Each structure stands twice: as structure tokens, then as C-alpha cells.
Amino acid sequence: MFSLCFVRVIYTLFCSFCGLHLKIKKADNSVITSKFYSILATIQHEKALREYILRKTKWMRRTFDRVDCNAHHSAFKKLTVFQKISTTKLIHNLANTNRQNYLYYSASPLCPRCLIKEETFEHVLICDHLPTA
Ligand SMILES: [Zn+2]
Q1: Is residue 90 a part of any domain in this protein?
Q2: What is the pTM assigned to this prediction?
């Protein structure tokens, strides 16, 4: 997986089969010598993906640009499969809460710890009640 930070790429052509000369450079002018397909696929989809993320998160472009994609990628690839799944759910606001359970299954929307507030993702992060045994 290549992060969106890699997409600021300057490239000229190079192909040993057809004689075209292609050099792909990152923004820091280092030449990319492998994983062309992944890099080109990232370039092809970057704009649509960026627009989707901005629309979904309601971020300003400046906020998006401040995300250190390389650091995220480095940390993410060190996680176990299960940690990646949980982290992805948290990042994309897909973690299941009782609010969702209430909407879909008519279960109690209350936080299982405090039993006072509706369990939303935001509440999970701030609830200071200890878990019940
Ligand atoms: Zn709570």
C-alpha cells in the first residue's frame, strides 16, 4: 500500500520494451525503481480518493495535507490482522456502538459502562466509568 503522500510524483517515461524512457520520481527527487504498478494505480485514483475522504470526513484540504501518510503506513503495517481491522474501524468511524445497535436491532442505546449516556463513538472515548465486572 502506498500512502497518498507518495502521489506527489514527478514522472517522465521509461520502458525497456517499447523504448520509451520512464523515470518516476517522488517529490524529494528520489527515483522510484520498483512497485510501478502500485504507484501508478495510486496516482490514477488519488484525486477521487482524496475528494472522497474530504467529503466523508468534512475536513478542510489543509487538514488532509497535514496527515503524515508515511507515518500512518509505517505504524499500520506493524499491526496484527486483528489490530488492523480494529484500527480501520476506528479510523473510519465504523466501530460498533450501542447507538447503532439501537438503530438496527432496537437494543438499548446506553453505554454499558455508565448506563447513563448513549454509547456513541465519541462517548466511548470519554466515558470515565470503570468497566463492570
Ligand atoms: Zn459511558
Answers
A1: no
A2: 0.52
